[in-house]
Design brief:
The protein is of the alpha/beta class. The protein folds into four domains: 213 residues, P-loop containing nucleotide triphosphate hydrolases (Rossmann fold); 176 residues, P-loop containing nucleotide triphosphate hydrolases (Rossmann fold, 3-Layer(aba) Sandwich), CATH 3.40.50.300; 61 residues, Arc Repressor Mutant, subunit A, CATH 1.10.10; 198 residues, no CATH class. It contains 24 helices and 26 strands. It has an eight-stranded mixed sheet with strand order 6-5-7-4-8-9-3-10, sandwiched between helices. Strand 22 and strand 23 form a beta hairpin. The chain is globular, with a radius of gyration of 25 Å. The N terminus is likely disordered.
Length: 670
């Protein structure tokens, strides 16, 4: 491997700035910590500039303090008058932890001066003047008030992540700012913040908005590339981990970027086995997995100080790129791979697949090594390969199913969604495919050459859910199973409630056997939730059954809120009790676009585009071959797998969408 230092502008600094911050090395007091931040030196100049600008773009190194300090500076300088300062985040975990941090700095109780709003959770009051919230929640507020009148300042943070919700929000906030000016309302100040992004694109989109650069403390980072292309990045990761382990100081911790839970669990097991057999006198190693569905208490272990003379090796998904900052990292091992969704409007397939990262992502990963001291990043690809990476991550809006976005835009009263002011326009095919899906779900109709919401569509838009799940709830009274559908939809709306450690597969299978339903994963999850409620959510029961208790408590909270929305719309809350066929018929009426049919050769074809798919090994139906199934999503690894399945009758599919299946279904009816 040959060293190559990164450009100076990409170096990272250490502190409590944007993203998910858990700093275990506290300064002697909170105020001193604020003064130690790089942004503090630019405080007076920054306040002076922001006071006179309607729109500004702030670029600052990770750790400069921009996310926690800019809203406080604005509030302390009384910029924005009596309105609320909103700071958006792509992820709920960041919105919550940042609000807690700023509340601590302001010495106030969380939910008073400083609050947060995320999906299914609102901790704000009439006193809240600084409000952290997810992009999606500000979008939902815009449905009720397109001018966002309660806000005087909107800060769009982590703009480089380019999620669907963020991109739509850019257009909504830009429109609200313009309309408020036209109507002589209180002006709306818009601030876009990021560590890395295509500055010219953003400045141009926001009417040539000025770009303000924050200088942060910098620690040097050495970059090492491989001399040759690596055919097996997992094996290369393993070799790199133990090379570092044999040569580096015990206090130097390692962060390895992998693509998903299965890879991480397998690598964790292998590392632990090898570490046990190292020569006597070798430094000890503690291995910690980190991924979104990991139980909360196990996630927290990653941030706690390690044992003396014991190296921490953290195996993480891209959650550690920006959302999570782990203290004490000196070495980063970057596989150059990430798992991302891709939607093909021609086939109607949305597939989760492993792909190369962008250059921007690679620099974000490298920067994790330079937050508290000089660091080293090992890239498991050649420098020539890196130069061929795309510069910026393709915006999610250009590679995902747009049905949720189109439903939101129609609910916002956008007169022509085909001409909406996107910062990066999705393809016309993707927009058309989304409209057709909404039409098949009964959410939209064509009137006078305009696309408008149907009465059902208006109700669907009121739920903070994907359109298909909104419809499932709204049609559930026809099948007398609203209580069960509420549970299933809630279970599918949070991170996985099941914890499947690879090292304990036999125990997992034994514990789960009593819940398994031959009718599929949805019914199995329903059985697990019912058992959880029967024991009043005992944590010991959760441990014994490998259930994530924190996520299960979130399911209960989500269910409560969805139930309230159902009551508001007069949805009858009935239970089908032991009749599960009604539940599956109800699912067929909204998930029929995700149906697959068993072929004579034992394979499955999707009914929509006749694409070959297989049942994922994690499904309870893996060893069965039902004739027709519904699935929640597709995952592409060695082949295209269906995940979260439900057994259905072809007659139910006809009943749900007769015209659609008259064209698609083969052999079910003559």
């Amino acid at each position: 491997m040959e060293p190559r230092p990164p450009p100076a502008k990409r170096l990272r600094t250490s502190s409590v700035g944007g993203g998910y911050r858990r700093n275990y090395v506290f300064a002697h007091n909170m105020e001193q910590q604020r003064m130690d931040l790089p942004i503090y030196r630019a405080r007076a100049k920054l306040i002076g500039q922001l006071r006179h600008l309607d729109t500004a773009i702030i670029i600052g190194e990770t750790g400069s303090g921009k996310t926690t300090q800019v809203p406080q500076y604005l509030y302390e300088a009384s910029i924005g008058g009596h309105g609320v300062i909103a700071i958006t985040q792509p992820r709920r975990v960041a919105a919550i932890s940042l609000a807690a941090r700023v509340s601590e700095e302001k010495k106030t109780e969380l939910g008073t001066l400083i609050g947060y709003t995320v999906r299914f959770e609102d901790l704000t009051s009439h006193k809240s003047k600084i409000k952290f919230l997810t992009d999606g929640m500000l979008l939902r507020e815009a449905m009720l008030d397109p001018l966002l009148r309660r806000y005087s300042i909107v800060i769009l943070d982590e703009a480089h992540e380019r999620t669907i919700q963020t991109d739509v929000l850019f257009g909504i906030v830009k429109s609200a700012q313009r309309k408020r000016k036209e109507l002589s309302k209180m002006p709306l100040k818009v601030i876009i913040m990021s560590a890395t992004m295509d500055v010219d694109l953003f400045s141009q989109y926001f009417n040539q908005a000025p770009v303000l650069y924050l200088e942060g403390r910098q620690h040097s980072i050495q970059i090492f590339y491989t001399k040759e292309t690596q055919t097996d990045y997992l094996h290369a990761s393993l070799v790199s981990i133990f090379q570092i382990h044999q040569e580096a100081q015990p206090s130097a911790n390692v962060l390895v970027f992998l693509t998903g839970q299965e890879e991480i669990e397998a690598m964790s097991k292998t590392c632990k086995q090898i570490a046990k057999n190292l020569p006597q006198g070798s430094c000890q190693m503690s291995v910690f997995p980190l991924y979104a569905s990991l139980p909360h208490l196990q996630q927290l272990r990653v941030f706690q100080p390690g044992k003396k003379d014991c190296r921490k090796v953290i195996l993480s998904t891209n959650i550690a790129e920006t959302s999570v900052t782990i203290p004490g990292i000196k070495y980063v091992v970057d596989t150059g791979m990430v798992k991302a969704k891709h939607y093909t409007p021609e086939s109607g397939l949305e597939v989760l697949a492993v792909q190369q990262v962008s250059k921007a992502q690679a620099w974000q990963r490298a920067g994790r090594a330079g937050r508290q001291h000089a660091g080293i990043c090992y890239r498991l690809y050649t420098e020539e390969e890196f130069e061929k990476f795309i510069n910026m991550t393709i915006p999610e809006i250009q590679r995902c199913n747009l049905s949720s976005v189109m439903l939101q835009l129609l609910a916002l009263g956008i007169p022509n969604i085909l001409t909406f002011d996107f910062i990066s326009k999705p393809s016309p095919d993707a927009v058309q495919a989304a409209i057709e899906q909404l039409e098949q779900l009964g959410a939209v109709e064509h009137k006078d050459n305009q696309i408008s919401l149907t009465p059902l569509g208006k109700k669907m838009a009121a739920f903070p859910l994907e359109p298909r799940f909104s419809k499932t709830l709204l049609v559930s009274p026809e099948f007398h199973c609203t209580e069960e559908i509420l549970t299933i939809v809630s279970l599918l709306s949070v991170e996985s409630v099941l914890y499947n450690p690879r090292a304990q597969q036999d125990e997992v299978l034994s514990a789960r056997r009593k819940f398994i339903s031959s009718e599929g994963d949805h019914m199995t999850l329903l059985n697990i939730y019912r058992a959880f409620k029967n024991v009043q959510g005992q944590k010991e029961w959760c441990r014994e059954n490998f259930v994530n208790s924190r996520n299960m408590m979130m399911v209960a909270e989500v269910r409560h809120q969805l139930r309230d929305i159902c009551v508001k719309f007069g949805v009858r809350l009935e239970s089908s009790r032991s009749d599960t066929s009604n539940i599956r018929r109800c699912l067929a009426h909204s998930l029929f676009l995700n149906a697959a049919e068993l072929q004579l050769d034992g394979t499955y074809l999707t009914l929509d585009c006749r694409h070959q798919v297989a049942i994922h090994p994690s499904s309870v139906l893996f060893h069965f071959k039902p004739s027709y199934v519904l699935y929640n999503e597709l995952l592409h690894t060695s082949k295209c797998y269906m995940r979260d399945l439900c057994v259905v009758d072809p007659d139910w599919l006809y009943e749900a969408a007769p015209e659609y299946f008259r064209r698609k279904l083969k052999g079910a009816k003559t």
